[in-house]
Amino acid sequence: MGAVEPVVDEENGEKESKIRDVEKGEMDSQQRGFQGQPTPAPAPAESGGENFHMSRMQRLSATNPLRLVMNAGTRVASPSPYNAPPPAQHRQHRSFPNPFHHRHPPAPAPSQHRHAPVPEPAPVPAPSQHHPSPAPSQTRSTPAVTPQPSVITLNSRSYTNKFSLFLFLIHMIGAIGLVCFLVFKGIQGLLEAGEAQRKEKRLLKFFLPQVEAASLLSITLAFTWQKAMRLWPTFMVHFILWGSFIFTLAAGILLICFQRPSTDGVGVVLIIFAIGNGLYSCWVTPRIKFCTKILIKSLEPVPKFGDLNRPTYLTLAAGFLWMSMWILAVIGAINFYFPPLVIIGLVLSMAWVTEVMRNVVNLTVSRVIGLYYLRGMQSSTQFCFQRALSVNLGSACLGSLFVPTIEVLRVVARALNLLEGEDEFMFCCAHCGLKIMDSIFKRGNGWAYVQIATYGKSFVKASQDTWELFQKREMETIVDSDMTSAICFLTGVCSGSICVIVIGAWTFTVYPNFTATLSLLSAYVGYLLTRIAMALPHACVSSYYVCYAENPDNRLFDKTIQDRLNSMKTDRDVIVPTPRSVPSRFAR
User: Fold this and answer.
1) Beta strands of 436-517 (E only): which ranges?
2) How far apart are CA 368 and CA 378, in angstroms?
3) Which position among 83, 182, 383, 422 has the lowest Cβ density within 10 Å, counted as fewest Cβ atoms?
4) What residue spans carry the Basic residues bias annotation (predicted)?
5) How many CA atoms lie within 13 A of 2 on its CB side?
């Protein structure tokens, strides 16, 4: 028996050392987590019959309560995404109770007798489920939520500016009802014998043919100007600037030559407008070269879309039919109450309807050309036209109602700021008015139609975003001095003046009493229908500017705008200044 005991001791020693190694391996993760903590001194050894060796814990059954408690103490919690571990700089200052530091006493020496008392570690307290609360100075960190950028869709199906769309639909229902009623009154007056019948016959004979001829002539001129603008843009810019001056002046002189009080008044107004037109043409002469470059570059994608003019054809056809019904309603208003007020209402309604038609074409072309610049896509013109007539129609209605008014008031405010005088109060008021109009212009301008058509934004949002893009690229001065809108406006004036010359001469020959009335009406019809056709080049130029501001590194853009900006910064290219402040005489 004495020879066997040392073997048992060695085996037990080897087993105990292996167990200690295993336990040490289990505790490595605990010790690595608290390397910054000093190791506490071992508890004093105790002796007694009830002492037991810690290594015997490994021999307990897996269902033993004490073994379950000890395993629960060594269990490591799985990481949670909501309870992130504290930073390293804070972790080393926190202390956690570790009941297993005293679990492994030092191994006995090999020469030690097996009956020597083995020092027992301090009793291990049961692990508590209560977690120590963090220090008051520490705050629990929550994972920061990074806001995701809003996804910009190119096929938004939400209607824009629904209230404006609702108002326009109500207006159209009322206008169609009024036109139908007035046409009925005209037919009724034509069938009844008396003075009303004679008036109706006279109007149908000497009034209706001239207006229909003016409509057809203006449509013909509109397509002629548009085709010439696409083929010879350099020539057409000069021709429109000075042709509108010549035709307007000729129309005014012709009406004065009729020597009738009504025609004299209209002729004087046209001559005054022609003088202002000529002064504007002289003033913007330095801008013509840059305007021509942008116009040529922006019209380059048009041949890639063979059906891009189809919405213009359809819109002008619809405009001609509506104009014919409108003329019959004007004739029928003679037999209704308050004919002047009814006719004024019909004129304003026609202005809004034709402006909406023009902006529908503008939205269609802006989407086709804008997607070509931004995404390299060749969009379906028919699909873009359907979107303009449905999803984006509310924005077209709102823009048609406010953009012309804002532009006119802005021009008036600028004209007042160009003048200098002795009345400081008046010019301070003009300066204040210009600031107000500039602020309104940033929230409602014609440049918004590109982003309305492309991204489906509302009118005000698109106006603000577009102007912010221009400010980001430092393009405000360039776009503010752009002549494209003025060229399209003067194209309509040119058509209206030609209609005045033709219709005025015709009417004076057959029935002179209608000369002044038909001259004004033909100028109005010629201007409105021509502006619809000129929406295509205008939309192309607007898309070029806006898409360049959004992505100037696109390979479809050249260095025309960038060179212009560089020359302006180095004072090598001087743009005619646009009035934006109080005249220098009153500057403080």
Assistant:
1) none
2) 7
3) 422
4) 90-105
5) 0
CA 511 to chain centre: 53
Residues in the chain: 588
- Enumerate residues 6+ apart whose C-beta is below 8 A from 582: 417, 427, 428, 431
- Nearest residue to 55 (alpha-carbon basis) of 125, 117, 128, 121: 121
Closest listed residue to residue 520, CA positions, set 505, 506, 502, 500: 500
Amino acid at 349: S
Comparing C-alpha atoms, which of 388, 402, 359, 393 is closest to residue 532? Answer: 359
- Listed in sequence order, the residues at least 6 apart from 570 whose beta carbon sits closer than 8 Å to its beta carbon are none
The answer to whether the beta carbons of residues 295 and 237 sit under 8 Å apart is yes
DSSP 27-88: THHHHHHTTTSPPPPPPPPB-STT---GGGGGGS-TT-HHHHHHHHHHPPPPP-SSSPPPPH
CA-based nearest residue to 273, from 243, 242, 252: 252
**8 A C-beta contact, residue 523 and residue 499:** yes
DSSP 482: -
Q: Which residues contact 39 (CB under 8 A, 6 or more apart)?
A: 101
The two tokens of residue 93 are: 């200052």
Q: Are 532 and 312 in contact (CB under 8 A)?
A: yes
Structure tokens at 203: 């109007």
pLDDT per position as a tens digit, 163-189: 999 999 999 999 999 999 999 988 888
pLDDT tens digits for range 112-169: 444 444 444 444 444 444 444 444 444 444 445 454 444 567 777 889 999 999 999 9
| pTM metric for this prediction | 0.71
Residues 351, 527 contacting (CB under 8 angstroms)? no
Residue 457 and residue 399: Cα distance in Å, rounded? 13
The answer to whether residues 454 and 154 touch, using CB atoms and an 8 Å cutoff, is yes
Q: Taking the chain, what is the end-to-end CA distance rounded to the nearest angstrom? A: 118
In the chain, which stretches have pLDDT less than 70?
Answer: 1-152, 419-424, 571-588
H helices, E strands: number in the chain? 22, 0
